[in-house]
C-alpha cells in the first residue's frame, strides 16, 4: 500500500472516531467542571507549543538558504518581458522602448562560484527557470514588476535560461566555464 494513502486513511479514521466520541459524549446534557476544562486547555496549549517547537528545531536547519551571508562571486541581472528575458552583467533594459538596443549577449560565470541572479520584469509576472543542457530544472523564481527577486545558484555544470518561453529555439544563456 502507498505510504501516503496509509497516512490518509489512518488520519481519516482518527478524525471520524473523534467526531463519533464527541457526538456520543454530548448527547445528554451534563454538568461542566470549569476547573477541569481550564486545566485541559492549559495542557493542550503547552502540548501544542512543545510540538511546534520540536517541528521548528527539526525543520529550521533544512532551509534552502546559504548558511553564510557571503557576497556572491558574480551578479547577473535578468530582465523579463513578454516572451523574452535579457540576461546581462549590466542592469539591462530599463524600459520596453530601449529593449532591442540593450538586449544582452551570453553571460559566462565560473564553475563552482556563487552566482546571484537579480530578476525583475518590465511588464507582468513571469516565471524564470534555469536548466541544464539536458533540460533538468536547476532553479526557478518569479519575475515581478517593481520588485527584484534575488536567486542564488552555485553552478557545477553548464546551464541555460530560455530566451523565449513560447517554443523558441533561440536562447540567451548563462554559461558555466571552468
Task: Give a written overview of the molecule.
This protein is α/β, with parallel strands linked by helices. The chain has two domains: 3-26 and 34-62; 74-177, Immunoglobulin-like (Sandwich), CATH 2.60.40. The protein is 28% helix and 29% strand. The protein is built from two helices and ten strands, in the order ααββββββββββ. The chain has helices at 3-25, 34-59; strands spanning 74-81, 84-88, 107-110, 114-121, 126-131, 137-143, 149-154, 161-162, 171-172, 174-177. A four-stranded mixed β-sheet has the order 2-1-4-7, with no helix packed on it. A hairpin with a 5-residue loop joins strand 5 (126-131) and strand 6. 16% of the residues are buried.
Features:
2 helices; Immunoglobulin-like; four-stranded mixed beta sheet; 28% helix; disordered C terminus; 2 domains; alpha/beta; 178 residues; single chain; two-stranded parallel ribbon; elongated
Give the mean pLDDT.
78
* Total of DSSP H or I helical runs spanning 4+ residues: 2
Which sheet architecture does the biggest sheet show? 4 strands, mixed
Distance between the termini: 47 Å
Give the CATH H-level superfamily of the largest domain. Cupredoxins -  blue copper proteins
From the coordinates shown, what is the CATH architecture of the largest domain? Sandwich
- Structural class assignment: alpha/beta
Q: How large a portion of the residues is in β-strands, by DSSP E?
A: 25-35%
Number of spatially distinct domains = 2
Please estimate the helix content.
Answer: 25-40%
- Indicate the CATH class of the largest domain: Mainly Beta
Amino acid at each position: 500500500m502507498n505510504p501516503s494513502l496509509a497516512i490518509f486513511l489512518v488520519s481519516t479514521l482518527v478524525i471520524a472516531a473523534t467526531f463519533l466520541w464527541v457526538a456520543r459524549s454530548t448527547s445528554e446534557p451534563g454538568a461542566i467542571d470549569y476547573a477541569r476544562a481550564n486545566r485541559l486547555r492549559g495542557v493542550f496549549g503547552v502540548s501544542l507549543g512543545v510540538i511546534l517547537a520540536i517541528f521548528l528545531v527539526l525543520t529550521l536547519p533544512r532551509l534552502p538558504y546559504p548558511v553564510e551571508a557571503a557576497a556572491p562571486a558574480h551578479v547577473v541581472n535578468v530582465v523579463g518581458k513578454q516572451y523574452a528575458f535579457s540576461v546581462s552583467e549590466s542592469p539591462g533594459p530599463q524600459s520596453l522602448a530601449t529593449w532591442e538596443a540593450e538586449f544582452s549577449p551570453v553571460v559566462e560565470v565560473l564553475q563552482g562560484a556563487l552566482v546571484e541572479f537579480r530578476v525583475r520584469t518590465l511588464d507582468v509576472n513571469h516565471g524564470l527557470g534555469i536548466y541544464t543542457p539536458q533540460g533538468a530544472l536547476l532553479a526557478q523564481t518569479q519575475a515581478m514588476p517593481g520588485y527584484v527577486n534575488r536567486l542564488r545558484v552555485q553552478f557545477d555544470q553548464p546551464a541555460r535560461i530560455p530566451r523565449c518561453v513560447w517554443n523558441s529555439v533561440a536562447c540567451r544563456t548563462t554559461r558555466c566555464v571552468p
